[in-house]
Give the backbone structure.
Amino acid sequence: MKKGIIFDMDGTLWDSAPEVVASWNETIQKSGYQRAPLTTEDMQSVMGKTMDEIARILFPDLSETDRTALLEQCGEEENAFLREHGGTLFPKIRETMEELKKKYHLYIVSNCQSGYIEAFLDYYGFHDLIEDIECYGNNDKPKGDNIALVYQRNKLEDAVYVGDIQGDYDSSRQAGVKFIHAAYGFGIIRETVPKIDRFEELIEVADQVLN
C-alpha cells in the first residue's frame, strides 16, 4: 500500500516570518505604499491563509488591482530572499524525514505563492526527500483541494497531513486524509487529534496513524 505524509510549511517545517517581514517591508517601502512596517506577529497571524486573503488583510485600502500587483512583487522578492538566506528550520527535520522516507512518500502542500516551496527546498537541499509539491500560487486552489490533488496524482492509498493551525486540520478533512497536529507551531486545533510536540516524534506518531 502506497502511503504518504504531506507537510504544511510555515509553523510545521520552519519559521520564515522574520525573513519574510524584512523582505516585504523593503518591497512595500520601494513601492511607495504607506503603512506601518509589518511585524513578525503580523506575518505569523496570516501564515496559512491563501495569498489573496493575506493581501486583503495586510493591504486593506488598496484597490484589488494594486493589491495584487504589490502582493506579486512581495512574493517575488521574498522567494529570492529566502533562496539566499533561508529561514529558521525546526530541529531534526532532515534526519527525521530521512527515517520517514524509508516507509512513506513525502510531499509538501502550502497556501503560498509559486516558488516559495522551491526556495525552501533549494536552500536546505531537500529535493531528494520531497517527491511532489503543490501550492495556491500554482493554481489558485485552496489547501484542501491541493492536498487532494497531490493524493490523487501520486496514486496514494493512505495519507496524513501534518500541519499546525486549525485551517490545516479543516483542509485535511476536506481532502479526506488523516491529520497530525504540529503542536510546536503557530496554532491550536479545537478537535482532539494526534499531535507531536517535536518534529522527530513524527516517526512514531505517523506509524500509529498510518498503520
Observations:
- The chain has ten helices and eight strands.
- The first helix runs from residue 17 to 31.
- The beta strands are 3-7, 14-15, 88-89, 105-110, 132-135, 158-163, 178-182, 195-196.
